[in-house]
């Protein structure tokens, strides 16, 4: 039987399909293939004892290759001009791609090291966007602070709860600055209310406003039943409801964010009381107003 050594034929890429069937050389005409015929190998006896035919095979190989290594061919890893089998010291296996695709260039198109990297670089997490610190609004309105309610004022009258028809009834209303704490727009705040005046609804369809709450006749040095900034004369007798509403300005303090002045005047809770108006008739007295200008009914 004819045995063709792999060391002789190497691979099909060295010769174009040299195919010698394992049969007797005497049957060369039946075993010769077109490829063997082109290489002039038909009919040769390549048995170890037939040195002449083996030398002819070597000569044919040298003639076919020009005495050099085989010419390059597509897809053949040995197809280089001076290819030699790799040794353990020089052979580098291809990169292992089981852990991910091979990355050879960085973001700047530069080669990563001498060889391609076998691991994909860890993705760089983008820096989180800066968190905007919430700040209170620059403008605070009266509606915004509606939940902050100052105390109602106190009311006193001269005479106390009763008056004479067509004669002044003096009123004294008092209020004071107040600071209330709480929360506004999600921020802790304090709101300071400062008195800015009073509104008097006298109950007879008359409404007035003053910048202060008034004072007693004695305090301001005036005679009884004399008109003042906070007095009113009723034209008809009867019972009326006097309602006094305090007016305030307000400032909201947001602490480290500063203060905000609320635009406008804020009405606080009102206080009310009933006033009885009676008709007064003149009576004989021991002195008239000329003799006693400070007497009742004298002005």
Please provide a written account of the structure.
The protein is an alpha+beta fold and 299 residues long. Among the domains are: 6-65, no CATH class; 154-278, Immunoglobulins (Immunoglobulin-like), CATH 2.60.40. It is 11% helix and 24% strand. It contains five helices and eleven strands. It has helices spanning 6-9, 28-31, 34-38, 51-65, 217-220, and strands at 154-158, 162-164, 168-174, 178-184, 187-201, 207-210, 231-233, 238-253, 259-261, 266-267, 271-278. Strands 2, 4, 5, 6, 8, 9, 10 and 11 form an eight-stranded mixed sheet that branches. A three-stranded antiparallel sheet has the order 1-3-7, with no helix packed on it.
Key features?
299 residues, alpha+beta, Immunoglobulin-like, eight-stranded mixed sheet, 5 helices, 11 strands
CATH-derived architecture of the domain at 154-278: Sandwich
Which structural category fits the helices and strands? Answer: alpha+beta
Biggest sheet overview: 8 strands, mixed
Q: At the fourth CATH level, what is the homologous superfamily of the domain at 154-278?
A: Immunoglobulins
CATH domain class name of the domain at 154-278: Mainly Beta
Protein name: PKD domain-containing protein
Keywords: Signal
Signal peptide: 1-17
Region (Disordered): 63-95
């Amino acid at each position: 039987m004819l045995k063709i050594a792999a060391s002789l034929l190497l691979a099909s890429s060295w010769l174009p399909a040299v195919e010698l069937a394992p049969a007797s050389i005497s049957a060369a005409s039946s075993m010769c293939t077109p490829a063997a015929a082109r290489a002039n190998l038909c009919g040769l006896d390549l048995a170890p004892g037939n040195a002449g035919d083996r030398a002819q095979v070597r000569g044919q190989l040298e003639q076919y290759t020009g005495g050099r290594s085989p010419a390059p061919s597509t897809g053949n890893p040995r197809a280089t001009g001076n290819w030699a089998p790799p040794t353990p010291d020089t052979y580098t296996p291809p990169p292992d791609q089981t852990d991910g695709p091979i990355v050879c260039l960085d973001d700047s198109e530069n080669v990563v090291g001498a060889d391609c990297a076998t691991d994909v670089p860890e993705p760089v997490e983008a820096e989180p966007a800066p968190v905007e610190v919430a700040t209170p609004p620059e403008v605070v309105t009266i509606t915004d602070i509606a939940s902050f309610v100052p105390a109602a004022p106190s009311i006193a009258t001269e005479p106390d709860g009763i008056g004479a028809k067509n004669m002044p009834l003096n009123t004294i209303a008092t209020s004071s600055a107040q600071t209330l704490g709480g929360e506004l727009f999600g921020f802790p705040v304090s709101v300071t209310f400062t008195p800015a005046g009073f509104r008097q609804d006298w109950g007879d369809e008359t409404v007035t406003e003053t910048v202060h709450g008034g004072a007693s006749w004695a305090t301001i040095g005036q005679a009884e039943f004399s008109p003042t900034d906070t007095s009113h004369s009723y034209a008809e007798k009867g019972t009326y409801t006097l309602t006094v509403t305090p007016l305030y300005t307000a400032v909201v303090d947001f602490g480290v964010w500063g203060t905000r002045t609320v635009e406008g005047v804020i009405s606080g809770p009102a206080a009310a009381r009933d006033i009885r108006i009676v008709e007064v008739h003149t009576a004989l007295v021991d002195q008239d107003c000329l003799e006693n200008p400070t007497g009742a009914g004298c002005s």
